Batch of 2 targets.
Target 1
Amino acid sequence: MHPFDYIRPATPQDAVAAFANAEAGARYIAGGTTLYDLMKLDIERPPLLIDVTAIAGLGEVDIGDERLRVGALVPMSTIAADPDIGRDYPVLAESLAKAASQQLRNMATVGGNLLQRTRCMYFRNGADGAFPCNKRQPGSGCAAIDGLDRGQAVLGTSASCTAVSPGDWPVALTALDASVEIVGPAGARRMLVADLYRLPGDTPHLEFSLTPGELITGIEIPRPAAGSGSTYHKIRDRESYAFALASAAVVVQRDGDLVSRARIALGGVATRPWRATEAEDLLVGQPLTIETALAAGRAAFSTATPGHHNGFKLELGARTVADALLIAAERSRT
Amino acid sequence: MIPASFPDRARIDARDKVLGVARFSADVPVTGVLYAMMVPARIAKGTLTGLDTAAALRVPGVVRVLTEADFPAPPPVIENGPPPPPPTLEREIAYRGQPVALVVAETLEAAIEGAAAVVCTYAAAPFAALIDSEGGVREMGEEIVFGDAEATLASAAVVVEGEFLSPTQHHNPIELLATTAVWEAGRLTLHEATQGAGGTRGMTARALGIDPGVVDVKSPYVGGGFGQKGGLGQRQTALIAHASMLLGRPVKLVTPRGQIFHLATYRPLSRHRIRLGATAEGRMVAMQYDAEQEQSRHGIFPSAEYHETTSRMYGIANYLGTSADVRIDRQPPGWMRAPHPQASGFAMESMVDELAYRLGQDPVALRLANTGDVDFRTGQPFSSNHLNACLEEGARRFGWSSRTAEPGSMTADDGSLVGWGVACGSYPSMMVPAVATLRIGADGSTRYAASGHEMGQGIRTAIASVLLESLEIDPERLEILIGDTTAAPQHITAGSWGSAGAVPVAMRAAARMREAVAELLDGREIAGNLHRRLATVRRPFLEIEVSEVGPGQGQDVLQALQYGAPAVAGPAYPTFTTMSYIAHFVEVRVEPTTRRVRVPRVVSIVDCGRVISPRTAESQVRGGVVWAIGAALREATEVDPRYGGYLNNDLADYVVAVNADIGAIDVGFIDQPDPLANSAGLKGLGEVAMVGASPAIANAIFHATGRRLHELPIRIEHLL
Ligand SMILES: Cc1cc2nc3c(=O)[nH]c(=O)nc-3n(C[C@H](O)[C@H](O)[C@H](O)COP(=O)(O)OP(=O)(O)OC[C@H]3O[C@@H](n4cnc5c(N)ncnc54)[C@H](O)[C@@H]3O)c2cc1C
């Protein structure tokens, strides 16, 4: 860990200005549950931390008829426990309730959550140069691809990187077609959550489509159509306090017994929150049975590329999607 | 005066712990303390060729960087003597994470920053990181042979056979390794998180070439030991002690968990090949068992001890046990709760389950018919063996009789497969010498000082239980000094001998005190408690000292105790063998689609002789079962053979069980005193609690799914 400067601006404009004036490598910090961790591991070495938690107006939750708006500083635990969100957006509440631990959820913000970094063990442990990692040290190589890759991605991988995008909340937001509100040096803009994440390709160190200094101020989530059912189904190595081996965020709308629209996003298996459109398309006009659900699950993994120890994620992922679809269908009305 | 059974009593230090009053070693306030941080080696093997400390010394607050040149040469190895102390700093790198330098600073932050600023250069050498890596050296251990296993197996009606694997696992107590050294006026005081204050004193003195007589070690509370804080001593202790002596100021190190994974001992990966032969009726007659384990180049964790329990649990008359170390380039493995039988028990009890299945017999009935009164390994009788009572009581509480035998035959309403499994465990019941002093004051105080370490297992509560049941003293002012070399000689507390080392001597102390009081009062009848009576006869205090040794031990072991050397008796005592026993019954549910395994309930019934402290005893068993659930279904430390070291070196990625993974755990005790093992009639408990619970889970999974899994941990991918 290295010494750093610290400031705590009161407005988004001050924060953005401070970033613009800082030397390279400055970071915003909210709950600190990702950033401090990576600083202690020497992966992140910011010369300046711009603490955004004193900025007014970023802590509100606004449940509207058409949409839900959540300020970037709202703690994960607030959304996880909100009864209205639990009723109207179960996929959202569940994605946060099943993430991390209560203590972490109390500290961590829904904005910071979007920008958490991978748990790839070679990424996290190699600050002393022991393992190559293209994400940590561009061009150095990837130790995971031929290494202990049980936790690595099977979708969206490249020859440079197979690191999983670890978050649960971004997966749920991707299924709901949510967008983020951003202010930055060039003004305000808005972007689909799905567009926030880049595929690793040859540049796995570039993870997000934000430009330096851009600050996330809020998240907007369109309300799912009346009668639709949703869930976040997460399979992990223990019942709580673990990242997903495979997860599925699912929203199902039915017309009679037949699916009129399904939205499916995958977590724990891909290098970014993964929208499984092949699976969604397959379900339209179908009844939801264990067979059609499994067929959709398998379709979601039709392009997956297993490594050495993570091949099970194809089957586990397909079954996770299937169970999620059946849970969501059970919750839906026609 | 000693009651036949002990009442339930709350943990005497529970309140202090909840309030944060109990001081663990890192909590001891020391004025003027300096903070230390180690610099770990980046390579898995080779030589440190350069160490540039200039940048580290420029970090504001850094006081000194200690390197190999600052330390005395290691002491000569004594043939057949005690194991050498852990090395200090060396240029030869034996494993990734080995400390190469120690940075000492005015603040913790400066120490951390300074450690990161030390620049090391290495000449890397080829290395072997895993049991199958090229360069590993296989070394056979002691053979355990009795009867004629080969011939008996050749003619046995049924032989089951299998190979099993238990992974590398790390202890991960919540309390980190912590040392504070205070060198003052020619004495060195070490506040150390250790299960062996006496051993720590000896090891540190030998590593630094100083007189153990000037070293005091204090470890009144340990925040979980499980073997990590015992046995071989910590490498860091002498480093910190030496730093304090060089700098003339107190120095403190709390080692980060990621470094502990690379420095501390661990449960080594082990492989177990078993052939178990039985008659057509299910009488086990012969067993051949080959065990091998990962071992460091100079490690001493004994491979032959995989046979310690497997050779004795059932009345198998013909046994051929081999064992081997595979020496590779890692830090030394060591004792971790249920050290050998966690792995060997998984192998053996899986095979016993397989035998029952093969024969179409109930696995409880098969076990009941195979336990015995004789230790075939020595030919001696067991001093007590209530394993059958454990099995019967467990089966009754669990409702075993409604189990249907065929795998996959039981399902729950939600479609989950239900599996009911059973497995037994046993563990040597050992004993160590102890010295105790007891002083009762007319002012209402009682001070008891003895050997023993409180690691959360409840040794203080057990001692208090004995003293308060047998002496009329004020419980509020009872002070129990343990883990402190200035109060009494300290034997290492491990191997489940804590109670055997602490309770009989406490009983003897109480009895001697009653005699002393009777002598003092000389027939006078005085009302009130002992304090009152002393006050009445104007005696400020009474103090007595007693000692206790194990069956067959001479008084000379008290000498060994003074040096902090291990002096362990049993389980094979001169005329009998003493083992503790347990039977675990487990229900698992395997989810129909994604195959998650859940453990909604466990029943565990224990024969640990007489129970001294019911509440902490029960808690010990729960802890053992919880850990076995973790060990069976989750825990494994990951080593990439290309790099060495441990990848999942924190509590997020080294997956232990959490609350949500644990269901009901019903614990029962047979509570029958052992007539021979010691005057208290108790047998060891802490280790046996865990033994057999992991195979009970594996057997339940077999019952649920028909899959006999040969490798721990059993994970979702094995069941899809
Ligand atoms: C042990 C552990 C287990 C975990 N388990 C899970 C899990 O199961 N599932 C899961 O989804 N997550 C899990 N997490 C991750 C956790 O959810 C994230 O660490 C947390 O959500 C990050 O939020 P934060 O506010 O603490 O972010 P910070 O650490 O403060 O920041 C994270 C990143 O976001 C940037 N940032 C923060 N706020 C903003 C903003 N408003 N605008 C622009 N940039 C910003 C920071 O610069 C930094 O790069 C776990 C974390 C830990 C430590």
Note: The interface with chain B takes residues 1-3, 42, 119, 121-122, 125, 128-131, 143, 147-148, 150, 235, 237-243, 245, 312, 315-316, 319-320, 322-323 of chain A (CB under 8 Å).
Target 2
Amino acid sequence: MVTKLEKVDVVVVGTGWAGGVVSAELAKAGYKVVALERGKNQTRDDYIGVKDELRYTNRYEMMQNLSSETITSRNNLDEVALPVRTRKEMMAGNDLGGGSVHWAGASYRWKPYDFEIRSKTIERYGKAKIPEGMTIQDWGITYDEMEKYYDRWEKTAGISGEPDPLGPDRSSDYPNPPMKESPPIKLFKEGAKKLGLHPFQVPAGNLSQGYTNPDGEVMNACMYCAFCTQYGCDFGAKSDPLVTVLPTAQKTGNFEARVGSYVRRVLYKNGKATGVLYVNTLTGEEFEQPADVVVLAAFTFTNNRLLLLSGIGKPYDPKTRKGVIGRNYNGQFGITFLGARGYFEDKKFNYYAGAGALGGAVGDYAGDNFDHTNVDFINGGGIEMRQYGKGAIASNHVPSGTPGWGADYKKKSLHYTYRSLVVWYTSANMAWWHNYVDLDPTYKDDYGDPLLRITFKYTDQDRNIAKFGIEKSREILEAMGADIIDEDQVPEEFDHVYDGGHYAGGVIMGTDPSTSAVNNYLQMWDAENIFVVGAANFPQFAGHHPTETVGALAYRAAEGIEKYLKEGGPLVARKEVSTHV
Amino acid sequence: MADNPNDLHEHKGMSRRTFMKNTGLVAGGVVGGGLIGGLLTNQLQQKPEVQTATDNGQIQDARVFFSRGQDFDILAAATERIYPKDDSGPGAIELGVPYFIDKQLSTEWGVNAKEYMKGPFAVYTTNTGNHNITKDQNKQGPNAETQVPAPTPRYQTKMTRSEIFVTGLRELDNVAQKEFGASFVKITGEQQDEVLRMFEDGKVELKGIGSKNFFNMLLQTTLEGAYADPVYGGNKNMMGWKMKEYPGPRASYAAQIEVEEFVKLDQQSLRNYQGH
Ligand SMILES: Cc1cc2nc3c(=O)[nH]c(=O)nc-3n(C[C@H](O)[C@H](O)[C@H](O)COP(=O)(O)OP(=O)(O)OC[C@H]3O[C@@H](n4cnc5c(N)ncnc54)[C@H](O)[C@@H]3O)c2cc1C
Ligand code: SF4
């Protein structure tokens, strides 16, 4: 039996940055908002005194419990997809605040080029630069239009940084100064400068000082405790929804976050959503939550899956290359974040200390900041040297050629514990007709609903950009004076490991309803009162971390939802153009 | 937890004072917001003495997962080859690694409680790919030498990790018998290495798992046992951390983050950190 609850103005699925921002903005505007979160409640108290590497880093304490639901994965259309069974291979947020709590905090704006990639690539290099089958497209919004939302999110989150000298125009400075410059970061910056590059401090969601955001939320200064990525912050010093947007929403009296609420369907009638169906994960009771507006902010996998399960929007079919839901699946997988590890015989860094987003970066090889005429790929990526701070289990790297275990390994792994640094390239990932998501024909969750199936493979674009990044990373390590440099190998094929939280696409934004699922307010073309918010909106992935763009898009969506609640109807006129596929 | 009293008891030479020494540094790093003040004060109200060591020696070193002593002995011997005692310090056995693994195998991790374990299961033998590549906190970062391209998602067996361990350890023994005519625990160290290498290279048929996967799991859990917080039964007396000069969990490293020279700190465990 399904219990029908009282109608609210807005029901939001998911409580990460996407759901949190939308909830806060609409609750502030006076609308009744209910957010549904499948996982448990969590507060800062849950993180005090539990800096435990085994539990959080190696056993994935904060990640989704996969016993009921995971994804299935394959490379090619004619293969049988298999479930990604372990949390080592599949990391997604699960509790109040979502993955936005256990993220590291590296916060980049994406570039004007990223938002108009198709037009700008053709403009500079001609049509032939985009290979057949690469389905990249403009977003239907420009950087200039996004700027105010970026600015707003940075202020909410209290980002600590200094502008990328080669970055896009900004209307104001970061709200907080950059984090401390540790000796490895200094070394990285000096090395980069020797090569004529333009280093800057990674803009961080770890706060460099105490800060009160525009909503009145107080955050504290980061302690460089190093138990950061894959952990919650016990100091309220990491920008996350628990210390920002969720309390802001709560304060209005218009907001309720319901945990243990697993959403199974968006209810849909006559072209509009009427609410959502969810189950209480502790009691098994089923509820219907009616609402005027349904917001899906449940991260890429669930956003896609709920639309497919609910039969909303036309599913993408790779054979005909038609349909939209599931189209242009993209993200940063194992082939991104490759680079090199340098070993320094005469140095010993205090690398037990660090923070999620502490690091140095270089933007010279990002986006279209360099000429691509003579390279066999488009787009680029940031280069980073991060000081996460290492736990004792994580810090056992040895130069290649050393045995992987035994006496020699022990000796060398102890010797090199604090003597190695990684430089990597956070390369972009372009969209292709053959990379998409749909529902799996075989594997199901506890409720009997099919799992989401991912079909994804690497292309020459991916391998070429990775090779380029590895070379650049090596050059910087050489300039830093590393004695031994081990380059990453470029993998031939995607290995079905989903561990960085940078998965995107499937519910992409655009100007054309035949190639996009949502308009530039993230309103669905096919259902005017459903808004889908998150990395699922990315038509392709830029060469920087995603979350700041997710946060900015959420502010954009909140503006659109408010407009919709006042005026109704589609916020952008349908403009059917037949484009490439 | 009561792990540490016993641990400390073993090392009589160790100074208890050391646990307090660095709180000054921590306090030095405290700046900003009112909230944090209270928070840190709480965290810093650590009792200087960890506890009084009781006289129960290694009372926690007993098997709770492996029913056969023989399986456990094979495990112990194998971990010691992977992480041997040498002049830098104790090996796996002295660090309590076999007991660490034994305990881990009866946790939710050991029984795959939070993994997707619904069928159908694709049955692979050696071809499952390496589902236990070593990944560090820099996840996607350079560890190319351990990245084996896999044709499918990596973990595709119906077996739980604890079942894999029992099966794998017994197979170590079978291979030792076959190759050297004696049990794994009876052959020489070099011979044990040879057996382990056969597993590492995937040369042994291990149905449903792949011997390489078992080996990687053994390797990973051995390192975890050497370096995880002592509360889990390994890293005895924080000896693993001492060898590594790893200080353990602290409220703050703000005082060290900008320092050029390596700052060697005394070890603190989770128990210290939680203020017991
Ligand atoms: C270890 C790690 C480090 C990262 N570091 C960085 C970084 O440094 N920089 C960066 O830019 N990005 C980083 N990311 C990515 C970042 O976490 C995500 O981009 C961001 O959290 C996305 O926010 P979101 O609101 O879309 O999703 P989430 O924050 O994950 O929120 C989605 C919520 O929806 C809930 N949900 C899902 N399905 C359902 C359902 N059916 N019913 C009810 N609720 C549901 C989930 O439980 C979750 O709480 C990292 C990710 C990981 C895993
Ligand atoms: S490193 Fe800083 S932001 Fe990260 S958990 Fe520690 S104190 Fe919080």
Note: The first strand of chain A starts at residue 2 and ends at 4.
